[in-house]
Design brief:
14 strands; single chain; five-stranded antiparallel sheet; mainly beta; globular
């Protein structure tokens, strides 16, 4: 697989066994069994740190704890290949490289297809929700602030579009009987967003901040 190509996560469940801890007590290894995810590491080495998720771990790396999804991609997700090295493939993940080990016989990544995007400028902010711009709200409905998350898409990185041309809206309802001004109103904005496979979860990025490849 060449850099720039799209891959889909499809682990072979019976043989896709990874170390997971914390099922019964912190740090204690859970019983081995098939999983629907694969880990990502900071370098193409089996003992390299798991990748960082600055939103979950501001001061450290992700872990193997059963509830820690910071360094995992799940079955069905799509990503863009960034680099390859021997039995390893790197994808763009949470604004950085994440290396995935490819065991002989059952690759957890298969070739796929999909629209991909890059940052239109040096970097593109990433959001957790796609709400309308301030000007779309009437005076009687409080503006819902949309702040960027801890992550950005840097220049040269690429991600797969999971949902395109998302129209922003916010449904305002504070009563059951429409007694408040403009209650039960759907505020629709002019901004549009893309939903991207960005980490273990989807994220939103303004279409104006991205370039389709």
């Amino acid at each position: 697989m060449q850099p720039g190509s799209v891959v889909k996560v499809v682990p072979h469940f019976p043989t896709n066994v990874h170390k997971v801890t914390g099922c019964t007590a912190p740090g204690v290894r859970c019983p081995d069994q098939g999983t629907n995810f694969v880990y990502l590491r900071t370098a193409p080495r089996r003992l390299a740190h798991l990748v960082k998720d600055v939103g979950l771990h501001p001061r450290g790396f992700s872990t193997t704890d059963v509830a820690d999804v910071g360094a995992r991609v799940d079955s069905g997700q799509k990503f863009v290949v960034a680099d390859t090295y021997k039995n390893w493939i790197a994808i763009w993940y949470l604004g950085a490289l994440g290396w995935i080990y490819i065991p002989p016989g059952h690759s957890p990544l298969v070739r796929s297809s999909g629209e991909t995007v890059t940052a239109a400028d040096e970097e593109a902010p990433v959001y957790g929700r796609a709400y309308p711009e301030r000007g779309a709200y009437p005076k009687t409905i409080p503006y819902q602030i949309v702040r960027p998350l801890h992550y950005t898409i840097g220049a040269g990185q690429a991600y797969v579009v999971a949902d395109d041309d998302i129209t922003t809206d916010y449904y305002y309802a504070t009563t059951y009987d429409d007694s408040a001004p403009d209650d039960h109103t759907d505020v629709v904005g002019e901004d549009t967003y893309y939903g991207l496979w960005f980490g273990h979860r989807m994220a939103f990025v303004r279409a104006a901040d991205l370039t389709l490849q």
